[in-house]
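ok so i was messing around last nite and threw this chain in just to see what happens. nothing serious, just curious
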Amino acid sequence: MSTGPLPIGTDAPDFEAQTTEGPLRFHEWLGNSWGVIFSHPKDFTPVCTTELGYMARIKPEFDKRNVKIIGLSIDPVERHAGWAADIAETQGTAPNYPMIGDTDLKVAKLYGMLPADAGESCDGRTAADNATVRNVYVVGPDKKIKLVISYPMSTGRNFDEVLRVIDSMQLTARHKVATPVNWKDGDDVIILASVNDEDAKKTYPQGWKAPKPYLRIVPQPR
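result:
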């Protein structure tokens, strides 16, 4: 049985795969960048068509943040080319990032999106058979899973939200701060609980707002 999507903090499994940009090994391809893997049950599915087009349009935003994008679909790479043409025609932008052809279901199983007994071929499988292959994973430069979001087939993903979370995580990595509910770039942030008051004073000599001792609010550092 599948144990479900890989949890946050676990190692992102390495793999070799055929993609629309040739064969790659995931960890080597990622290098020192952050990465987003977003998966699709099958080519020529309507909701995914809109997602792939939007992701292509906002790719410069991911580039700015040193984030590489890779898609996955349970279909051969050769079919991806025909789908890309449809995406360009209907969405205005063709995929400008690699798309994995996961014909043997290997990557989907590695990442907990399909059970181990799902078989070893995409042949004969429908989108409904692969309904659980609708996840977004963010992987850090340390090759750890940083974010997992699972979506139903009928709901288009919110990639603006993925960018927002990446902004938050990169801010935490640089400045030891957390971000409150509905935070957007430029809003106030919270000093991490792991930073004691003495150390916090060195970083924030002007002090902070603290409605509770554990809730220390400061302007977003740059």
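not much to say yet. Helices lie at 26-30, 46-57, 59-64, 77-91, 106-110, 159-175, 197-203.
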